[in-house]
Design goal:
This protein is mostly helical. The chain has helices at residues 2-12, 45-50, 68-91, 97-125, 129-132, 149-154, 189-194, 199-207, 225-233, 243-249, 259-265, 273-278, 290-305, 319-325, 330-337; strands at 29-30, 33-34, 165-166, 180-181, 370-373, 379-382. It has two domains: 2-130 and 315-382, Orthogonal Bundle (Myeloperoxidase, subunit C), CATH 1.10.640; 131-161 and 219-314, no CATH class. Helix 3 crosses helix 15 and helix 4 (97-125) runs antiparallel to helix 13 (290-305). The longest helix has 29 residues, at 97-125. Heme b binds at residue 159.
Length: 383
């Protein structure tokens, strides 16, 4: 597994440029902005979905091509990495390819940590956030930060909130017609390249906050995701404990179960954790019920506390750098790496159009966000 990850990292790194950049697509651009490179041109679902256009899947760590929105987010952070490299190189011309790449990856990793924990998880977990993920106290070498099977299932709670259509909006945030049905968007990389780039999908993600027949079959790929999630919990490999057992693990009371569940399962002990926890009312200010909040929050705390390179740990960044990193936002990253001119300040919350962040780019009171990089007396670069 380590070998495969290292091999993928090498493929994504543009070593030919000797500039610390991530590899980009040489066939298409998004009005001058880079796309991810294509993967191997072999029989694959993206080629099947694109028909005569013959557009393959993007090459990236993890799954970037199954959904246009996933592909757009991967593309956004590819562009941010290369933007950071350019700033680092101009301020530190003596840095080599390796140093530029690693420093940009380090900063980008910190950005993703901040956005995930400060902006996303705080809204997902609501009133339970500070209890489940208290203030960081540094690296805990005894913490087991491996991903648990139950978390891998619980975090799929977001599957229930995905709408049946994939929205894409024009520059005035008006729907582009016709709507794209979610079931026909699977591996549709061609839509990004041929239908306006990543901006329309990112606008929709900002404006919006799977159940039946999630994806129409592409070749022989097609799933009912709700059924698949429940099957994951009772497979021979995982065989997870039931809903009530996980409520007990989280210190919650043992409910007798709803009538409809009891009619199907017979006993509360047999209720699948995914469907049982999904049916619960949200915690105050959050987007999941108490068991999901517990399982998700516990895992994310373990990930943070068991990470020697967590951005707030001593020696990872200087205090000055941490102060500057704390100012970043996903809104700012979208402003800097797309053609979008209007972005909400609170990007993870349901929004009506103003107030905007991108329109304030020229505000002299805002000023640049600067991080000091200690090396031979210090150097600085703007985020």
């Amino acid at each position: 597994m380590v070998y495969l990850e290292a091999a993928m990292a090498q493929r994504l790194w543009d070593r030919n440029s000797q500039k610390g950049l991530l590899a980009v697509n040489h066939n298409f651009t998004d009005r001058g902005r880079e796309y991810m490179p294509f993967g191997p041109m072999r029989k694959e679902p993206c080629l099947k979905a694109s028909g005569a256009a013959r557009i393959p899947c993007f090459l990236a760590r993890g799954r970037s091509s199954p959904s246009p929105r996933l592909a757009c987010m991967h593309t956004l952070f590819l562009q941010e990495h290369n933007c950071l490299v350019g700033k680092l190189r101009s301020l530190n011309p003596h840095w080599n390819d390796e140093r530029l790449y690693q420093e940009a990856q380090k900063v980008l990793g910190a950005m993703i940590q901040i956005i995930t924990y400060r902006d996303y998880l705080s809204l997902l977990l609501g009133c339970r956030f500070h209890r489940l993920i208290p203030r960081c106290r540094g690296y805990n070498e005894s913490m087991d930060s491996r991903i648990s099977n139950v978390f891998a299932l619980a975090f799929r709670s977001a599957h229930a909130s995905v709408p049946p259509t994939v929205g894409h909006l024009d520059e005035y945030y008006r729907p582009i017609t016709p709507e794209i049905q979610l079931r026909t968007s699977f591996f549709a990389v061609w839509r990004i390249i041929q239908e306006g780039g990543i901006d329309p999908y990112l606008r929709s993600l900002m404006a919006d906050q799977l159940w039946d027949r999630l994806f129409e079959e592409v070749e022989r790929i097609g799933f009912d995701l709700a059924a698949l999630n429940m099957q994951r919990g009772c497979s021979d490999i995982q065989l997870l404990a039931g809903y009530n057992s996980w409520r007990k693990f989280c210190g919650l009371s043992q409910p007798s179960g709803a009538r409809k569940f009891l009619k199907i399962y017979g006993t509360p002990k047999s209720i699948d954790i995914w469907i049982g926890a999904l049916a619960e009312p949200f915690v105050k200010g959050g987007r999941v019920g108490p068991p999901m909040a517990c399982l998700i929050g516990t895992q994310f705390r373990n990930i943070r506390d068991g990470d020697r390179f967590w951005w707030q740990n001593p020696g990872v960044f200087t205090p000055c750098q941490c102060c500057s990193l704390a100012k970043i936002s996903l809104s700012r990253i979208i402003c800097d790496n797309t053609h979008i001119t209007k972005v909400s300040r609170n990007i993870f919350q349901a929004n009506r159009l103003p107030p905007w962040l991108c329109e304030l780019q020229s505000d002299p009171k805002a000023g640049p966000q600067t991080v000091e990089v200690k090396e031979h007396g210090g150097a600085r670069y703007d985020l």
